[in-house]
Amino acid sequence: MAQRSSSVQTTTVSPDLEENVIEQTDGIVRNFFYQRFQMDMQSTESELCVSTPSVPEFNHFQSNPLSPSTQIGRRLAEIGDQINDQYAGEFRSMIQQLHITPSTAYSAFAGVARRLFTQGINWGRIAALLMFGYRIGMEVQRSFGQFINKIIQNLVKFIISEKITTWIASQGGWYSALTFKFDNNNVRAIAVIAALASLTVFAVWMSHR
């Protein structure tokens, strides 16, 4: 057990520069969205497969399968898929109650998203943040169209302004997400966070009335 712990630590002991993390964030978030969209479109059993809206921004998306941004985006999308399997209902309920429009999307998203990190930052919560943003993006895209770029910009803005990039840099940069293992402890933690986040929905919705 001690040897296994040591081998995991070696992947995160060398911090990255936060400037590098910030520079890479937009590309990784875009790759996350693209990978999640592909998962939705390819899944014949998913409810989302039937209702996933068209996203013209992805029609000519260029993604080198060997690039770090693609690999990291894909790994986070895989984690996000596990989270979505567990909490699709919670995501759907929160988004429906927020009554999001393009003009209210960022403040509504940020008000709920901050709850994800009240107990600290980890890769599971970052993946949950991206998944929540993706679900908001798909919902608004379905109703208003041409919104995916805006929600990606909102996510990047949030990750930088809330200093999540500082934590990522301390872990060795975005690349360290590739070694993260999502397990039952992460599921339980996100369950508690999802419950807390839902408490903010009514207050955020009221602020937009």
Automatic annotation (TrEMBL):
<keyword id="KW-0053">Apoptosis</keyword>
<dbReference type="GO" id="GO:0008630">
    <property type="term" value="P:intrinsic apoptotic signaling pathway in response to DNA damage"/>
</dbReference>
<dbReference type="InterPro" id="IPR002475">
    <property type="entry name" value="Bcl2-like"/>
</dbReference>
<protein>
    <submittedName>
        <fullName>Bcl-2-likeous antagonist/killer</fullName>
    </submittedName>
</protein>
<dbReference type="GO" id="GO:0005741">
    <property type="term" value="C:mitochondrial outer membrane"/>
</dbReference>
<dbReference type="InterPro" id="IPR036834">
    <property type="entry name" value="Bcl-2-like_sf"/>
</dbReference>
<keyword id="KW-0472">Membrane</keyword>
<dbReference type="GO" id="GO:0051400">
    <property type="term" value="F:BH domain binding"/>
</dbReference>
<dbReference type="GO" id="GO:0001836">
    <property type="term" value="P:release of cytochrome c from mitochondria"/>
</dbReference>
<dbReference type="InterPro" id="IPR026298">
    <property type="entry name" value="Bcl-2_fam"/>
</dbReference>
<keyword id="KW-0812">Transmembrane</keyword>
<dbReference type="InterPro" id="IPR046371">
    <property type="entry name" value="Bcl-2_BH1-3"/>
</dbReference>
<comment type="similarity">
    <text>Belongs to the Bcl-2 family.</text>
</comment>
<feature type="transmembrane region" description="Helical">
    <location>
        <begin position="187"/>
        <end position="206"/>
    </location>
</feature>
<dbReference type="GO" id="GO:0015288">
    <property type="term" value="F:porin activity"/>
</dbReference>
<dbReference type="GO" id="GO:0097192">
    <property type="term" value="P:extrinsic apoptotic signaling pathway in absence of ligand"/>
</dbReference>
<keyword id="KW-1133">Transmembrane helix</keyword>
<dbReference type="Pfam" id="PF00452">
    <property type="entry name" value="Bcl-2"/>
</dbReference>
<feature type="domain" description="Bcl-2 Bcl-2 homology region 1-3">
    <location>
        <begin position="76"/>
        <end position="174"/>
    </location>
</feature>
<dbReference type="GO" id="GO:0042981">
    <property type="term" value="P:regulation of apoptotic process"/>
</dbReference>
